[in-house]
Amino acid sequence: MATAVSLPESFWRSLRHLNLYRLFLAFSVTIAAWAFPQYAPIDEADLQLFLASGVLYGTAAILLAGMERARHFDFERQLVAQVGVDIVAISWLMHLSGGILGGLGLLLIVPVAASGMLPTMRAVLLAASVATLLLLFEQAWRALGVGSVLGSFVRAGLLSIALFAVAVFSHVLARGARSEAALAGEKGRQVEHLARINARVIQELPFGVLVVDSDGRVLLANSRAEEQLRGNFHMDCTLDRCSPHLADLWSAWRHAGEVRAYPFQTAQARLRARFIELEPERQAGAIVLIEDVTELEAEAQRMKLAALGRLTANLAHEIRNPLSAVNHAAQLLKEGQGPEVQARLCKIIEDNAQRLSWLVDDVLSLNRRDRLDREDLDLAEILAAFVGEFQRNEQVSEGAIRVEAEPGAKVGFDRMHLQQILWNLCRNAWHYCGKGPASIRIAARREEMRVDIDIFNDGPPVDAELREHLFEPFYTTNQQGSGLGLYISRELAEANGARLRYVEHPDGALFRLSCHLTPR
């Protein structure tokens, strides 16, 4: 027996149509035989029996139709009962109306075709076999009475073959329909399961979700949206009643395109809305995402103040040390020291003044991250010019920096940003390297879709416990450094779509700047 889940609803409709066919057949042949007996191929002695049989067949059709409507029994039981009644009744009426020559035998095709909806081929072939046996038995009975008629047996044989063919073909079609129904049922259960999951996920989202139609009517909302719009919100209301601010944003979004998601104030909180179209045409409706920015703004303000406090504390600490050295040297100069001591004190003042200048430059660089003037730079030319300038300004010995750049390697980068990144990295490299020939090596090589710029020095590698703090602001192991160089270099690299990282190397320290390759 097929389960209610795998049984297509079309099978019940087919059973209902079979009932209508049975009612029409029973009463039409009965009324026709009663109204026009002279045209019916029925013996006068069998006419009353034919009429009674037709009325009995019609009564059975009414009872079977009532059973189908009530569905007190499962589909297969009802189908077996109906097909059995049809085969017996039509075979009997065929016998009373002259046998196979009367033409009613062709009506057996319909119930046999309906038996194809049975779940097994064995049951279908059994129905076709019963109809064939009754057909052949009636023909044999008639042959015993009036003599054998070869043509009648041929007609009966052909009709029997047709019954089996129709039964098999209809069962194949019905089996396909059952498979499709089972697959559709499984897909339906999966859809229902996903719908429940989606509904649960939407309800658990930390922000409000509304779904509105083309008229701005709310079709769906989660509990968070109800909390955010409480007092004015109810299901099936329109946006202009839920929130005039949302209604204004909705109207602007539909007609003017993208709308800036600025916060708006309600009686409970500050909210920010974003619209996502349901269909390619925005007139069809939208999903409205509502976010409470009250706590976010407060948290952002707290983080801003905390960052400002850390920056101020670090700046105060970094400035205090060179200022103390300058003050101490100035006091010693007032005491009238000798020329050699005065020269040494002046050098201290100059060094610390330069250190303060570097610190100011680094702090100012924090504000240049978003000031991009990107251009295609030929690394061979840029690196050669940079090394010459760096050696002159930092008093680096000739030959201490070696450049290896593939010709034609170009990157899209802000020229000043790239120069500052290289300057910071090479300054650190010069501080820690052995200061011999080729102690610093700058190599630029092309990969598939990027260019890697390696800045290597032959100094000691960075300790493992220090690597995770390399790019933190104000973190330094050099008492003369500000701790901002690597942090600023990474920020400028990310602003240009590049990546700066430390790479382990057994013979020294290696920093790698990975940039996007400019297509040729």
What would you say this structure looks like, in words?
This protein is an alpha+beta fold and 520 residues long. It folds into 4 domains: 179 residues, no CATH class; 86 residues, 2-Layer Sandwich (Beta-Lactamase); 69 residues, Signal transduction histidine kinase, dimerisation/phosphotransfer (DHp) domain (Helix Hairpins), CATH 1.10.287.130; 146 residues, Heat Shock Protein 90. The protein contains 15 helices and 12 strands. It has a 5-stranded antiparallel sheet with strand order 2-1-5-4-3. The protein is elongated, with a radius of gyration of 47 Å. It starts with 8 loop residues before the first helix and ends with a strand. The N terminus is likely disordered.
Spell out the blueprint of helices and strands:
Elements: H1 9-35, H2 44-70, H3 75-96, H4 109-114, H5 121-146, H6 150-204, E1 208-212, E2 218-221, H7 223-228, H8 239-242, H9 244-256, E3 264-265, E4 270-277, E5 286-292, H10 294-334, H11 339-365, E6 374-378, H12 379-393, E7 401-405, E8 410-414, H13 415-432, E9 440-446, E10 450-457, H14 464-467, H15 485-495, E11 499-503, E12 509-516
Parallel strand pairs: 7-9
Antiparallel strand pairs: 1-2, 1-5, 3-4, 4-5, 6-8, 9-10, 10-12, 11-12
Major β-sheet profile: 5 strands, antiparallel
Shape: elongated
Low-confidence stretches: 1-5
User: If strands are numbered along the chain, what order do they take across the biggest sheet?
Assistant: 2-1-5-4-3
Coarse structural class: alpha+beta
